[in-house]
């Protein structure tokens, strides 16, 4: 191919696709609207406490027994992992004023998962480091993808220096399907059936928010608790231990209250409710974390669209999105929402990247 492959999106899927293409001697450019790598992978240091660890506000785990691509890539890149802490009692919090219940699960009831030491960002950085310098272009927003009568594909993008028109051998869209359809102009238009299929794929995590409370030590373990909580009282519906291998402790949680309600409450009140819940569950020691990290993905315009504010009631039925007609083999979809298996997971992002590159090769 004389023209480079253009990859839209520098999340795990886009970066992995670029790595596979360059390893096969195929030139590519990765265009990313954000000013950082990773997409929905977001690992942040504790605020004001740089030595207190780095914590994931996006995806956190993978399951080695079921996710071979993640397992193999992490091993190949030599990244450090730690097993998710699940030892100890689980807390159940019913709605209303009922007391918090404490349960010890049977051995083997919780499936083994692992985290990356220093966060999933280490995986993003390692994959990006495998690319030739200059492959990824940040703060570059793709606005249109056009095809001429002779089959030439042109990508229109905007960045700090103005607008740019780029010829492409093909385009890999490695971003949420709904974002692709609603934020990029296609000429000729995408087939109606494909557009409908893309719009029906909810963006994983787009309606969700995540919070991490960091402490000087994982004090709940001293009380025989795993840090795992299921709650029907909220605001957090699900809580887990997010502590680093040693030293500091951390708890992270997913919200049960929907995006619209979080917006009405505002960040300050939402986090106040979180601290009240942590105190209710774990006692006064949980009331004053040394750092409180928060990310509401529903308010991120590069992740969520209006339709994503609707809470998911079950795991979406994801699957591949295939171009047809004039766009066949010219426009290829990647990203975890287009994976036939493990959609919504890091494994799904890798599988979709592999599939996209196979389609080109």
Automatic annotation (TrEMBL):
* Residue ranges of domain Amine oxidase in the record: 12-89, 112-361
Q: Which domain of life is it from?
A: Bacteria
The protein's matches in Gene3D superfamilies, at most eight in alphabetical order, are given as:
FAD/NAD(P)-binding domain
The record's listing under InterPro entries reads: Amino_oxidase, FAD/NAD-bd_sf, Flavin_MAO
Q: Which SUPFAM superfamilies match?
A: FAD-linked reductases, C-terminal domain (SSF54373), FAD/NAD(P)-binding domain (SSF51905)
Family membership noted in the UniProt record = Belongs to the flavin monoamine oxidase family.
Q: What is this protein called?
A: FAD-dependent oxidoreductase
Q: Which organism is it from?
A: Rossellomorea oryzaecorticis
């Amino acid at each position: 191919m004389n023209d480079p492959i253009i990859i839209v999106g520098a999340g795990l899927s886009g970066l992995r696709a670029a790595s596979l293409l360059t390893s096969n001697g195929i030139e590519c450019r990765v265009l990313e609207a954000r000013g950082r790598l990773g997409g929905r992978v977001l690992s942040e240091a504790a605020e004001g406490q740089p030595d207190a660890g780095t914590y994931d506000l996006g995806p956190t785990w993978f399951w080695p027994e079921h996710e071979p691509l993640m397992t193999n890539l992490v091993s190949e890149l030599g990244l450090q992992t730690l097993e998710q802490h699940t030892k100890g009692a689980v807390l159940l919090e019913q709605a209303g004023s009922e007391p918090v219940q404490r349960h010890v699960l049977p051995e083997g009831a919780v499936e083994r998962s692992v985290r990356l030491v220093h966060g999933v960002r280490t995986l993003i950085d390692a994959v990006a480091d495998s690319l030739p310098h200059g492959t990824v272009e940040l703060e570059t927003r793709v606005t249109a993808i056009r095809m001429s009568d002779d089959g030439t594909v042109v990508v229109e993008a905007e960045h700090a220096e103005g607008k740019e028109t780029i010829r492409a051998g093909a385009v890999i869209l490695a971003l949420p399907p709904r974002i692709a359809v609603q934020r990029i102009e296609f000429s000729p238009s995408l087939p109606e059936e494909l557009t409908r299929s893309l719009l029906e794929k909810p963006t994983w995590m787009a309606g969700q928010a995540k919070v991490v409370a960091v402490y000087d030590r994982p004090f709940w373990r001293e009380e025989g608790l795993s840090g795992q909580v299921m709650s029907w009282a909220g605001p957090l519906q699900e809580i887990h231990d997010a502590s680093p291998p040693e030293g500091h402790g951390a708890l992270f949680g997913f919200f049960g209250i929907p995006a619209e309600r979080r917006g009405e409450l505002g960040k300050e009140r939402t986090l106040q409710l979180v601290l009240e819940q942590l105190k209710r569950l774990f006692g006064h020691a949980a009331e004053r974390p040394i750092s409180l990290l928060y990310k509401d993905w529903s308010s991120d315009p590069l992740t969520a669209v209006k339709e994503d504010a609707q809470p998911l009631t079950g795991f979406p039925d994801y699957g591949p999105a295939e171009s047809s007609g004039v766009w066949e083999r010219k426009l290829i979809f990647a990203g975890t929402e287009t994976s036939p298996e493990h959609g919504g997971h890091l494994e799904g992002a890798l599988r979709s990247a592999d599939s996209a590159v196979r389609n080109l090769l």
